[in-house]
Write a structure and sequence with these properties.
The chain has about 120 residues and is α/β, with parallel strands linked by helices. The protein contains 6 helices and 5 strands, in the order E-H-E-H-H-E-H-E-H-E-H. The chain has a 5-stranded parallel sheet, with helices on both faces. Helix 4 links the parallel strand 3 (about 50) and strand 4. The longest helix has 13 residues, at about 10-25. It is globular.
């Protein structure tokens, strides 16, 4: 059975690249430019959630991850924060993300992070 990934990014080109790469690696990807998939997380049942810190809307990605980790129903879902922020390791730790991917990222590194967390 394919591992499921929810992918939320702020940039459409990056979203498409990550989606394509992960699907080629055998993942079942639900990708979005909004947090809509998070509202359907019970239906999707992802193995890992990848969220950019600067997503569209009124919430940062780190806040989305913090809320997932605080909810007993979703606390076990692996969460990966992505960003161009210089303090990304600290932000990831603060929101209890399982891992992080610094942008711009190396494709092989991104694949390894997702595989290690799914």
């Amino acid at each position: 059975m394919k591992k499921k990934v929810v992918l939320i990014q702020d940039n459409e080109e990056i979203l498409e690249i990550m989606d394509q790469v992960l699907e080629e690696e055998g993942f079942d990807v639900t990708s979005s430019l909004t947090t809509e998939p998070i509202e359907k997380i019970d239906e999707i049942e992802p193995d890992v959630v990848i969220v950019d810190d600067h997503i569209r809307g009124n919430k940062k990605g780190s806040k989305v991850i913090e809320e997932l980790k605080a909810d007993p129903q979703t606390e076990d879902v692996s969460a990966v924060l992505t960003s161009t922020s210089f303090d990304l390791p600290e932000k990831a730790k603060e929101c209890k993300a399982d891992d992080y991917i610094e942008k711009p990222f190396d494709i092989d590194h991104m694949i390894n992070v997702v595989k290690n967390n799914s």
